[in-house]
Amino acid sequence: MTMGEALQDATGRRPDQEVFVCGETRMTNGQLRAEVDSATRSLFARGIRKGDRVATLLPPGWEFVRLFFAAARLGAVIVPLSPDLREGTLASILADCEPRLVVRPGELSPAAASDPPPAAVQPGDLLALLYTSGTTGTPKATMHTHRSLIAPVVATLKVRELWTRPSSLRIAAQAVKAFSRYGTRLLRAMGKPQTILSTTGWHTITGLHVMLQGLLMGDRLAVLPRFHPQHALELVQRERVTVLIAVPTAWQAMVSMPDLDRYDTSSLIVCGAGGAASPPALAREIQRRFGCAFYNGFGMTEMGGGVSVSSLADSDARQAETVGKPMPGVEMRIVDEERRGMAPGEVGELAVRGPGVMSGYYRAPELTAQVLDEDGWLFTGDMARIDEKGYIHVVGRKKDLIIRGGQNIYPAEIENHLASHPRIAEAAVVGVPAAVGGESVWAFIRLKDNEAMSVREVLDHCRGALEIFKIPSEVRFLAEFPRGEAGKPQKFELRAAAIKERSGGAT
Amino acid sequence: MSSPQDSNGPRDPISFEEFRRLIARELHVDEGLVVENASFTETLYADSIRLVEMMLRLSDQGIRIPLEEAWDVVTVGDAYRLYCRKVGQGPAPA
Fold first, then answer.
1. What's the DSSP call for residue A470?
2. In this structure, are residues A475 and A445 in contact, taking their beta carbons and an 8 Å threshold?
């Protein structure tokens, strides 16, 4: 099935059902279809044809929805980008993907053109280029087809059948267990369209996945273009949201609100963390404060969405401490350094195979070969173990990656930028556990001989050149780095020193 | 040196001049940029996470700004007004 067909199918079933809420804008399935028809004509009139790249710099909202599906119908390739991208990053991405059109807010006006001829679009055709930070500092795009973006969405429907429409005795038995825990809120939602609240940008895989989940599966999508804890809870109350997905930092903000209890959140069935796993303590706090299930989503841009998920039937501890079990249709295994399978319970790299896995990195076959093998296994770089019951415990990362506020940061990008300063000889950047945002960015700097520099000068070099979330929180100057045999800075030692300093110990 | 809110007696908020000096020091930015209408995001390159980090550090120095309202802070002036309101609410917690 193509994305265009999926939309036709979803909007054709109940044309009068409300499917989209954002601010004052409310749309039914019928209106959604008509808007996408109009946008398709506009794009065609602007010369967009199959295979053309269409980049967007749009916040989550109606403009994005109509453009996304219109581009999909024409067989074009959508490139969703953050509206907050800095000029330098944006320029390098646009040079990489060479879009025929770049759409900013308010730029896609309706066209009076006639309907375009149907485009010959196949499920395996390229649909989206989703950019992520690159390990080398250069943004790289994951290639996703219609199939690889639809498959994870369909899988989430199967996961939700426990409380929407139990399809087997086994599922029904689990549903009974869930009813005993979540009671009336589950009964109220059973068999009805769910209301899913999106709080993250749609240029991220989490945001895009939630958007598609809300629009394509017969549910309703509530949208918050920019996260704000109070506004999110007001929306939950007003729209009777049943599924709320947010990054851990956003969850932290919501559970910290002193007047949280004044909001009616009794409609919530599932709270989910996307972008990064939530610390177990935060997960338990969410379970306690909202009285519903909590899922730690696990996914990567390379996987097209979530690849594992918890269940309402899982214990609170399992929901808080694991990322659940593989989604339907997804295979997982743990491998060693030589990519050989390991025994249950052993810690190794998590490999994933399934219909949501990307086709590869755009115009980067060598980079693709490093993470994707010929049999379709994606080597995630995450270290994990699978317990005897099949639950996945993510224990760390093999690759050099910082996750701050749900945003991936590859230290190399910051290190390369820092090292471009004429007075800096070398830089090493590490992520340090932080009370706010999960991890904070620490930069260790070795200056060239007889040079001096202040923290402000280092940060000024970053400001305006790096995305705001990549600017280091802390800067430390070292006369020499701790080094391994190959002469590379020993980052684990730097990280340990940072943790010690942060906890009040001497450095 | 005692912090501005160490005293248990009636407290006065620190002046805006002092407040902006503290912010400049915490964020390592030129003091001249820290004016009332300066946006934390656009001018001072501090996103919401950095803002909360800064508020936590200021709190350690006795300058308490209600963290739960950090999401509504756009400018330096917003932060100062929140701080003044907090001071006006009575003694800071021990």
1. G
2. yes
Exposure string of A359-369, with b = 16+ CB inside 10 Å and e = fewer, is: ebbbebeebbe
Residues A363-390: tens digit of each pLDDT: 999 999 999 999 999 999 989 999 999 9
From CA A125, how far away is CA A34, in angstroms rounded? 24
CB contacts under 8 A, B 35-94 vs A, are 41, 45-50, 52-53, 56, 67-68, 70-72
**Domain A401-502 CATH class label:** alpha beta
As its CATH architecture, domain A3-17+29-121 has: 3-Layer(aba) Sandwich (3.40)
Q: Which sequence spans correspond to the domains of chain A?
A: 3-17+29-121, 401-502
Residue A223 and residue A58: Cα distance in Å, rounded? 13
Cα dihedral sign, A209-A215-A221-A225: positive
Question: Which residues sit opposite A444 in a β-bridge?
Answer: A428, A476
**A33: pLDDT strictly greater than 60:** yes
DSSP-assigned letter for residue B47: -
Q: Do domains A3-17+29-121 and A401-502 have the same CATH topology?
A: no
pLDDT, tens only, A186-210: 888 888 889 999 899 999 999 999 9
What ipTM was assigned to the predicted interfaces of this complex? Answer: 0.80
Catalytic position from the list B47, B60, B72, B78: B47
Question: Does the model's pTM come out above 0.90?
Answer: no
Q: Do B29 and A405 count as a contact with CB atoms less than 8 A apart?
A: no
Helix (H) or strand (E) holding A271: strand A270-273
